[in-house]
């Protein structure tokens, strides 16, 4: 089963969004469960986000995060995208991920994150 800890939901709405996503996927018998990771990540352009850890299917996770953005009227970061690199640099280089920022179901930006001390932080952010 897949999983990630680099997805996020707008601060102040995360608990409600996580509960909604878990209920939706459970009712649809889909493999997905999300929990709050216990810390926030700050961005300059998009605001503060509560980090989410999830386990289940990647396709379900990407889909439910986009739906949550629209239905719950919240900003979300759908991440897990990686730059293609050589195998050795990927294994020994810094841990970097790219994500899409959605607001009310619409793509509004992109973000690059790096992992420092087991927590994701913003490296680069831009509007679409």
What is shown here, in short?
The protein is α+β, with helices and mostly antiparallel strands.
Notes on the structure:
The structure is a single chain. With 128 residues, the chain is α+β, with helices and mostly antiparallel strands. It has one domain. Helices cover 27% and strands 52% of the residues. The chain has three helices and seven strands, in the order E-H-E-E-H-E-H-E-E-E. The chain has a seven-stranded antiparallel β-sheet, covered by helices on one side. Helix 1 crosses helix 2. The termini are far apart.
Topology diagram in text:
Elements: E1 2-10, H1 14-27, E2 32-43, E3 47-56, H2 58-71, E4 75-81, H3 87-92, E5 96-103, E6 106-116, E7 119-127
Antiparallel strand pairs: 1-3, 1-4, 2-3, 4-5, 5-6, 6-7
Keywords:
7 strands, globular, 128 residues, seven-stranded antiparallel beta sheet
Neighbour order of strands in the largest sheet: 2-3-1-4-5-6-7
Number of helices: 3
Distance between the termini: 32 Å
Low-confidence stretches: none
**Relative strand content:** over 45%
Structural class: alpha+beta
User: How would you sum up the major sheet?
Assistant: 7 strands, antiparallel
Q: What is the 3D shape?
A: globular
Q: Mean pLDDT across all residues, rounded? A: 93
Approximately how much helix is present in the residues?
Answer: 25-40%
In N-to-C order, the SSE pattern is EHEEHEHEEE
Tally the structural domains.
1
């Amino acid at each position: 089963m897949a999983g990630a800890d680099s997805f996020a939901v707008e601060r102040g709405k995360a608990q409600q969004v996580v509960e909604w996503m878990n209920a939706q996927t459970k009712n649809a018998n889909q493999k997905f469960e999300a929990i709050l990771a216990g810390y926030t990540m700050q961005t300059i352009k998009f605001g503060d986000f509560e980090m989410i850890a999830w386990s289940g299917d990647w396709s379900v996770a990407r889909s439910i995060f986009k739906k949550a953005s629209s239905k719950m009227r919240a900003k979300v970061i759908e991440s897990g995208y990686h730059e293609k690199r050589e195998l050795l640099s990927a294994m020994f280089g810094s841990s970097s991920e790219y994500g899409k920022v959605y607001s009310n179901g619409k793509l509004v930006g992109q973000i690059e994150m790096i992992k420092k001390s087991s927590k994701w932080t913003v490296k680069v952010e831009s509007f679409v």
